[in-house]
Amino acid sequence: MTKAPHFVIVGGGTAGWIAAFIFQDSARRAKLDARISVVESSKIPTVGVGEASTAALRVFLQHFKVDEFEFFRETGATFKLGIRHQDWRRKGYTYYGPIDDPHQVVAPPTGAPSDYLNVYCVSAGRRVQDMHLFGPLLERKKAPYAKKADGSLIPLGPFHYAFHFDQALVGRFLKARSAGIEIVDAIVSGVERDAESGNIRSLVLDEGEKLAGDFFVDATGFRKQLIVKELNAPWISYAKELPVNRALPFWIDIEPGEEIANYTLAWAQEAGWMWQIPTQTRYGCGYVYSDEFTTPEEAKLEVERVLGRQIEARGDIRFQIGRLQEAWIGNCLAVGLSSSFLEPLESTSIHGTIVQMMLFADRYLKHPARMTGADRDDYNRRVGRQVDDFRTFVNTHYVVERDDTPFWRNVRAERLHPETKERLAHWRKEMPRREHFVDFLFGLPHVETQLHYPVLDGLGLLDAKLAKGEMAKQPEVRAFARKTVDSLVKEYKLASSKALGHAEFLEHVRNNAG
Ligand SMILES: Cc1cc2nc3c(=O)[nH]c(=O)nc-3n(C[C@H](O)[C@H](O)[C@H](O)COP(=O)(O)OP(=O)(O)OC[C@H]3O[C@@H](n4cnc5c(N)ncnc54)[C@H](O)[C@@H]3O)c2cc1C
Q: Does the global pTM surpass 0.90?
């Protein structure tokens, strides 16, 4: 009989704990009788930023039957219904990227192509964001809940939302619910490898002890302790097309009684962009910029000028933008910051971790002795495609009208990836449709038309004449879409007037503990 496998996750940041939760759950379902350990070091802090998720986090919480209100209370979480993109297209122009999908709640008429509501909006010169429930909620900073007469809360729609939170508290929250996972507080300083296969046999810990295992997850953040320092995994850089490489994080306190944003603010600046992400007590903020075009000192002065206040920098983070060529090598799989990193414009990092771990658990998790080279190749191909798609989507945000600084002129002239150009060229001939995005993640969430439309629309990259032409081919679909969009806009405007204010919702949750 094969002995019970030992899965060892190195790193106790958000990525390590998400991996541990998913591994434990799937191993149990697969009747693997596995031992799972997390090695983390209290001497090495987690990255300390990274506070906006996508709806994938809500799917993850629901899967593990986590009480969402408990999550709000214990992690300082707030709602994220979308992203407010400010000054990207041009200075003074704002658009929202709501993350709900109205197509989900309307049964399409016979013969309607995918995305027909989006195409109709573009053809009629109407803003795509307005037919989303989250559109008016974003503009009014409201929660997607109303209060019933008996004081209980009722959701305003079936849509998944996302969260903002304190990243360190999420790690602690998951750790506190990790029954059955062994936790080792130690620094991994090296590994012992099998001479023949090159696989990792055991970790060498700082006190000289060894921890043997069958399969290792590298979740050590930017240190990439196993996958790069030990296994020398090659890195694919996205630095050419994604220009920012440095971050200046800081906080702004939220005053009592102040309304709280329900969006991540992505605010374009002279050499990059600023994020503002609310938790219940403060905005986690930062300026992500290119140090080719400004210095840390100039960046700080610029932020202070824009905000009209002094800030206290909470670090100076330099990062490499890109991904591992292969995230899974031998018996070691990297996840989180150790496997890839893109500027946090669309919160792809924690999203990527959740989806990658779900993919791995669903398709490839078995006794490590039975994992094959074909498994690794297949996983690496899919994950590589996923992160490349994130790159192309983020890169598309840089197709702007701005040319007021050397940074923006450089971005426009030199930083667009061929795939970004190719997609935009295609969408000048044919409106974006779901079929243009091949499902290579077996239905797991990915950046498809739902997220593209508000961004392409907000940047003015969709052609109303083309949309009109496509709509004209099916007059009955057009009539249905017009009626539907009219009624969605009306219904959601009304819903937003009944919705609770975001701060009021959070106060309700805090005051109604279990
Ligand atoms: C500027 C910035 C903004 C970001 N914004 C977002 C965002 O809005 N949304 C989003 O989804 N993501 C964002 N991210 C990414 C996000 O922070 C990460 O995806 C997330 O926090 C997971 O990090 P991690 O667990 O991979 O690494 P870390 O948090 O760095 O954790 C690494 C862990 O490994 C341990 N460790 C390291 N070396 C060793 C060793 N040798 N031995 C033992 N243990 C070790 C540490 O103790 C720690 O527990 C942002 C990142 C940056 C830099």
A: yes
